[in-house]
Amino acid sequence: MKNRASAPRVGLFGGTFNPIHLGHLRAAEEVREALALERVLFIPSRNPPHKHQDARDPIASAEQRLEWVEQSIAGHEDFRIDRAEIDREGPSFLVDTLTEIRDREKHERPVFIVGEDAFAEMGDWREPEALFALVDFAVMTRPPGGLEHLADRIPEIVRSSFEFIEGGRRACHKEAGTWIDLVTITALDISSSRIREACRAGRSIRYLVPEPVRLSIETSGCYGSGTAVRPRRMKSASR
Length: 239
Prior knowledge:
Elements: E1 10-15, H1 22-34, E2 39-44, H2 62-73, E3 79-81, H3 94-104, E4 111-115, H4 116-121, H5 128-134, E5 136-141, H6 156-159, E6 162-165, E7 170-173, E8 179-184, H7 192-200, H8 211-220
Parallel strand pairs: 1-2, 1-4, 2-3, 4-5, 5-8
Antiparallel strand pairs: 6-7, 7-8
Helix pairs in contact: 3-5
């Protein structure tokens, strides 16, 4: 996929990251490469407005989740942390975050990276019309059976604001000039909810999250179990 912008663009990857995992990291890398992004800013949510604390399935503290993101992207020269939501009091509404970062990144419109499921739900988020006029969007989809046409999942409230081109894989806002790109990424079957479930059951989360994150999660017991099950060693067969 060719990058249409002449100036470098910045990707914005927001989320609860409860916890961040290898699927997040690989997705960010593939979108960065596909859209020729200069860098990707990871934006951990301090107080996600669409998620509520549940004693049976807790949201780790903002400080823990920020630390895990920092550990995960350490050493990647094109991945950075953005503290816009961590440092802001109150609910972490995306429209406030995008407004702040767009005003800061004056050289080019940022690109917000989002999965197709969350993309479809954005009509219920605060000020959806404003959201889609603020920045460009990269909507991630995974084969097989992934999204083929943006119109199939774009929120109804903003559908008429866009013109769909390139077989529905791109869309342009008729007034604001912002773009939506559909980006196919590798189908890694990893999710934060499954990682938390594995922790509660005492199962290993090795190779699902970066190793420093695994050690921190299992040591803290923040998801309900401080010790992962150790695999048994196989006895050598007699010869």
